[in-house]
Amino acid sequence: MRDEVDELAEAWARERSDLDLAPVAVFSRISRLAHHLDRERRTAFTAHSIESWEFDVLAALRRAGDPYELSPGRLLRETLVTSGTMTNRVDRLVHRGLVERHPDPSDRRGVLVRLTPEGKDAVDGAFAALLDAERGLLAGLSTSDQHTLAGLLRRLLAPYA
Q1: Span 104-125, pLDDT tens digits
Q2: Residue 14: other Cβ atoms inside 10 A
Q3: Core vs surface per residue 30-55: b (16+ CB within 10 A) or e
Q4: Which residues, listed in sequence order, are joined to residue 100 by a DSSP beta bridge?
């Protein structure tokens, strides 16, 4: 079974036979798959009236478990954004009624960001839609192949963890 990456690699091999083109076969496919995944994410999130960045914050709160709250510092670590960006995001989510700020009982100066019932519904619906889309992207692989691929990608990403 051939694809467009095979053609791309062959064209490069013709033009640059002096180079080892093995990475092209892997990373060009990962790049194309990332494009399809990004499109599916946008579709799933739009259907639930949230944006990708909103999903990231809401999902971090949802994964925290009941009562679905985290400190802003923990949200920063979970979403890998700057403090100023997180403040802006939380402000916007508060305005939309998807999260609330509450005083931190263990730190008089601190606050906790808590998922509202509306926020929980939004992230749960978007996550279910995303999983359906991701299952579709993986439909051509057996369960065993999916586990193998996950393991290979884990090894590939390990140096960056």
Answers
A1: 988 888 899 999 999 999 999 9
A2: 8
A3: eeeeeeeeeebbeebbeebebeebbb
A4: 114
